[in-house]
């Protein structure tokens, strides 16, 4: 029998029965190993992807916080700048108002000084309040009435001594009235005045006190110099 005949007589099943299981088992092991490797690789890829996602999320959050903070800071700077501009505008506006008021005061004072000699009379002697008033009335005027800051400054600027003005509460205690029966519009009292101490009903200017706070109620019988306003005849003597 030659070799070809021998190989032809070998059944295929005989081959399966002898070497088949070993080859199949080895193949299965290799497959499982490959599956395990693939599974491990997939697991690490998943982990890495997860870590990247977490890092990306943290980066986005940090960026968001940073942008929000910068935005808040910018907004704060913007508000501060706007407030600063408003304050400057307000100060400029007030400065303009003060300048205009100053010019107005100076202009009114200038007018008063021009009228001064004709309109006002300042005594050189002293009398009580009623006698002083009568002196003015006898010459067509009355004791001076002061209803604004300009006039208060103007009248006060002439004196270094206390003088009577045309204000009293002699008719009703605490109800101050000018000699033309008008009520007080602007007041320039000394601190703690009027105090009606011992019955004080006639008002004087005390030029040693601040120019806008120099009124005092005094006993009407006290002797003071005085100021007449709107006199029509120049007194021969006072
Ligand atoms: Ca009084
Ligand atoms: Ca007083």
Question: How would you characterize this protein structure?
Answer:
With 238 residues, the chain is α+β, with helices and mostly antiparallel strands. Helix content is 55%, strand content 11%. The protein contains five helices and seven strands. Strands 1, 2, 3, 4, 5, 6 and 7 form a seven-stranded mixed sheet that branches. Helix 3 (20-119) packs across helix 5. Residues 10-18 have low confidence and may be disordered. The site of one calcium ion has 6 residues, from loops.
Summarize this structure briefly.
It contains five helices and seven strands, in the order H-H-H-E-H-E-H-E-E-E-E-E. Helix content is 55%, strand content 11%.
State the helicity in percent bands: 55-70%
Low-confidence stretches: 10-18
CATH classification, class level of the domain at 119-229: Alpha Beta
Average residue pLDDT = 85
Ligands (ions, cofactors included): calcium ion
Count of distinct strands? 7
Structural class: alpha+beta
Give the overall shape: rod-shaped
So, CATH architecture of the domain at 119-229?
A: Roll
Largest sheet: 7 strands, mixed
Q: Please state roughly what percent of the residues sit in beta strands, choosing from under 5%, 5-15%, 15-25%, 25-35%, 35-45% or over 45%.
A: 5-15%
**Spatial extent as radius of gyration:** 54 Å
Order of helices and strands: HHHEHEHEEEEE
CATH fold call of the domain at 119-229: Mannose-Binding Protein A, Chain A
End-to-end span in angstroms? 178 Å
CATH superfamily of the domain at 119-229: Mannose-Binding Protein A, subunit A
């Amino acid at each position: 029998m030659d070799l070809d005949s021998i190989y032809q007589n070998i059944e295929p099943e005989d081959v399966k029965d002898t070497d088949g299981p070993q080859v199949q088992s080895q193949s299965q092991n290799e497959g499982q190993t490959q599956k395990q490797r693939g599974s491990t690789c997939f697991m690490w890829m998943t982990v890495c992807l997860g870590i990247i996602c977490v890092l990306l999320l943290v980066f986005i959050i940090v960026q968001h916080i940073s942008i929000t903070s910068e935005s808040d800071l910018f907004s704060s700077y913007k508000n501060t700048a706007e407030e600063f501009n408003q304050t400057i505008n307000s100060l400029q506006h007030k400065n303009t108002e003060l300048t205009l008021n100053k010019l107005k005061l100076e202009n009114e004072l200038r007018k008063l000084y021009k009228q001064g000699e004709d309109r006002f009379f300042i005594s050189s002697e002293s009398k009580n309040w009623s006698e002083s008033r009568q002196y003015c009335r006898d010459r067509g005027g009355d004791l001076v009435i002061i209803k604004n800051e300009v006039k208060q400054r103007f009248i006060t600027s002439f004196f270094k001594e206390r003088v009577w003005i045309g204000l009293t509460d002699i008719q009703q205690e605490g109800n101050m009235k000018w000699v033309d029966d008008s009520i007080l519009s602007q007041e320039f009292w000394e601190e703690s005045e009027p105090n009606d101490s011992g019955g004080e009903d006639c008002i004087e200017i005390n030029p040693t006190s601040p120019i806008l706070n120099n009124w005092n109620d005094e006993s009407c019988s006290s002797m003071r110099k005085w100021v007449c306003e709107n006199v029509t005849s120049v007194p021969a003597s006072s």
